[in-house]
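just leaving the lab so this will be short. what follows is a protein written twice so to speak, once as letters and once as structure tokens for the fold. can you read through it and tell me how you think this chain folds. thanks a lot i owe you, the record is right below.

___
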Amino acid sequence: MEIKFNINEDKGLHIFVGKMGTGKSNLLNAINWCLYGDEPIIEGKDQLINKSDMSTDEQPRLNTEKYKCLKPGNTEIVSVKIYIVDGNSTIIFQREEKYRLVNEKTVNVSEDNFEVTIIEPDTQPQIFEEYTANAYVEKFVPQEIRDYFFFDGEKLDRYFKETSGHMNKHAIETISQIEILEKSKETLDDIFSEYRRLTTKNIPELKKITEDLEAVEDKIKKLEEEKVLLDSQKGTAKDTESHYDRLLRGVPDVKKLSEEQSRKEEKKGKLKEKRNEKEKVYKDLLRKYSVLIPIDPAIQFVLDYISSNQSIGKFPPTNDERLIEEIIHKKECICGRTVDSEEIKILEKLKEKISLPAKIVAEILEESGKLKNLKKEIVNFPDVMKRNYEDIDGLDSEIDSIQNEIDEIGRKIKGYDQEQIGKYYENRGLARETIDRNNNRLGQISSELDKLKRESKDLTEKLNKGKNLIEDTSTIESKKDFVNNSREILEKIKDNVIVKIKNEVEEKTKDIFLKLSWKKQTFNGVKLDDNYKLYLIHEDGFKISKTSSGGEGEILALSFVSALHEVSGFNSTVVIDRPITLVSGEATLKVAEVLTKMSSNKQLILMFNTDEYPLVSTVLDNACSDKFLVGLTSSERECYIQKVI
């Protein structure tokens, strides 16, 4: 597939329109991959650069149609070429990688090959590879600041985020090219250390101080390097966290809800078990009382009969024969008194007098107690059954309530890709962990640096006091002082260059914003503060650190990007995927008008969804050099691009 743009000095606007998923973002990915070998726009997918022995479960960069038709032993090539016209010269950036089907399950990916071809009039083309080729990319758009040239529309609000400062600072330092000064200073640092060692090598006391000082300085240097790295990581993590916050805005934590749903299912299961046990008890009681209640009149009759006969003395006394036998055997009364022989004779006669009817009466009275217990159970039957019924009913209500909660969770997560959303939450959590971890470490580093800098100051003072012990080293000392002065000058130059570039970017951003903005009475300036955070200045003088969907944030972002381009000299093409995604209402047309103004002196490639473009078509159709429709073929394995303007 080849895409050719009309080159028009007054119209540098090129537009792509297509439905979600048709491949518009592939253009942005293709540019990044061709120039830098990666695809940062792809979310949640592993990069496949230089992967060999790749499983077919992973999506290769190879066109899907070609991939499906790939046969063992055959080779297919993925290639992207970018043609840049610079005056009379043409620069061609080309990257390619090869795919080969080794067996039914494995695709072999060769090392990608990158080269740059320079075509000058009346000369043979020059082809460059590896380091030299990458150097041409850095001249075109340095990888460190590519996010200010090729980006998606959601990033247009990052300049008002807490995370923007470190990104803006890094961009300004990159275009200031201070790395040359930093390398020169590192060289001078090494020379200074060597001279310092030479001046003290023959004096043990000073040599020890010098060694200690160098050790402290080395620790300081490593900690400061670590601090820069941690700050960068923290900034990136904050960007990542903000990105996933946007993706998850209004989206439930499906993983968390699914886990909660599982816990409630488990609780419901336990309640059902308890309810079943209660129901079993209830049924057992019903069976028991179904026998007792019918014989209640008979029980009552027997109890009344026994009671009436007892009251009129028809039952003989019911002496306990076993008790009498025990007293006779032990010769001891139940009160503990010793029983004499006369008393034993009386007891033996009493035992003989106990008749069979008396034993029967004792058994009748014993059964009477059991009947009384049964009668009591029959009387308590309504209360017992009521309590059991209430327990079962309460458990049913609790089970129904939990089921409603389970159903509610189900409604919340229905229709969502649980795996994908879970991954979003996981990635956001990992970003937060990085932020917290780096904050803790940065706090430790700050304390350690304070301590080490005090040590360095003390050791330097001790070393300076010991100069009177140094003999015949005036030449070396003079050179050392010269190098030290040079170091200080380089540091000041570096700071001045950064401040100068920062001020130029700030002023240029202000000029561009005031030209582009339609709210000329509302804002009167732009501020890039000491932390490189970007602000709008209200006409009343206060800073505006946040914006709404009114479009001013997007205009400020575009102004800042344009200012970076002009100040840096990297006046490359700008590619934006969905530039109006964060704008709403009448501001949408205003932003579209600003984009057309930008395209009058800069090549601008914009990509829109089909539901977005109608909002701005009245403005952009007349302003663009080219307009392309992007879609999928009927097989949905290939995309096509059709030029309509």
